[in-house]
Amino acid sequence: MSFTDNFGNPKGLLGKLMLVTMEKEHLPMAKWAFTLMNIPQSGKICDIGCGGGYNVRRLLEKSTGAKVYGIDISEESVKKAKKINRAELGSRCEILQGSAECLPFADGELDMATAFETVFFWKNIKICFAEVRRTLKAGGKFIVVNNYGDPKIDWEKKVPCMTRHTASQIKTLMENAGFGKISVSEKGTLFCVKGCAK
Length: 198
What we know:
Layout: H1 5-8, H2 12-34, E1 44-48, H3 54-62, E2 67-72, H4 75-84, E3 93-97, E4 110-116, H5 125-135, E5 136-147, H6 155-158, H7 167-177, E6 179-187, E7 190-197
Parallel strand pairs: 1-2, 1-4, 2-3, 4-5
Antiparallel strand pairs: 5-7, 6-7
Helix pairs in contact: 5-7
């Protein structure tokens, strides 16, 4: 596995190191995004592509009663996320290995789904967005947070496993998947797109 492949699916020692590095680099983005969210105080929340589980922990801290799930394709991410959230595992938290293309939830089971710095690595993004819509109850929220990065850099060439999407493109993908009340917030190269399941 190449170094850049670890961005989308951290593995082995390099993957472990990358998970720690990513948390440090993504912290300002996460702090900003959480100021834009109205987090449910009950029900079920899932952080898709949860990485090392730091945003799962933040969701647990900001919700008094919701059960928070983290799901990630990477085995290393799942191990790290379980470690970070061990105090709540088995009660208010569950960490699962899996893909955004086939989420382990019933139709309309979730109240909110988040995706921090992960949708650029979803190969079949239309299928993934439809799957998120399937698992959200009517009025449930889907929140996508990303850093588009320096537009002068060819990130797809540097990191071949990723495909960048603009905030406007994410908004259109949400609309096509059956989301409404979509809002876009931007700060420099950061963006947060929020939609509600119809």
